[in-house]
Specification:
By secondary structure, the chain is an all-alpha fold. It has helices spanning 2-8, 13-16, 38-55, 74-84, 99-112, 121-131, 148-161, 164-167.
């Protein structure tokens, strides 16, 4: 039976396999400085933690679907994405100009994973409203100048939320 399924499939099994990770990313960086700092030690710890995954030495056959794609831990992804739509830790202050994009990426991912994004409707509307300028565009964060990129992300997020309360926030004439 398995052989007939493969024969009937319009996609060849080898096409569904993930390409191998390039060798450059499955070994230690070719250039390393002898100077040890807190940052270099943190980077080394990250490399030590990630290399087994990049080499494929951690995964077992149970971690992959029959077509070779890795299994998605849906619940953990949803949990993480919900966290990105809550109050961000202080260390994320550098991402302030990217807030509309973070909102859009998280909403899109949650939507694709089948999670309910409705619970963020008011928060998304209020947050993006605070980034909107008098001329209708959106800045990357509160009080920032409007720009095409954050305006695009904000409009996509509002459209994804849908409904008059979100869609009416988009000043189509001013944009």
């Amino acid at each position: 039976m398995e052989a007939s399924k493969e024969a009937d499939s319009p996609i060849k099994p080898e096409v569904l396999r993930l390409p191998p990770v390039p060798p450059l990313f499955t070994s230690w960086p070719p250039i390393q400085d002898d100077l040890k700092t807190e940052t270099s030690e943190s980077q080394d710890a990250t490399v030590r933690e990630c290399l087994p995954f990049l080499k494929g030495s951690v995964a077992s056959p149970q971690d992959f679907y029959d077509n070779g794609l890795p299994k998605l831990d849906r619940d953990n992804h949803i949990y993480f994405l919900h966290g990105t739509l809550e109050k961000m830790p202080g260390a994320f202050v550098g991402f302030d100009a990217s807030r509309p994009w973070i909102i859009y990426w998280a909403l899109t991912a949650l939507s694709l994973l089948g999670a309910d994004i409705e619970l963020y409707r008011d928060r998304v509307r209020r947050t993006l409203s605070s980034m909107q300028n008098a001329r209708g565009g959106f800045g990357g964060g509160h009080g920032q100048i409007s720009h095409c990129a954050p305006s695009y992300a904000a409009v996509l997020s509002l459209a994804l939320m849908g409904g008059p309360d979100c869609l009416d926030l988009i000043d189509r004439k001013a944009l």
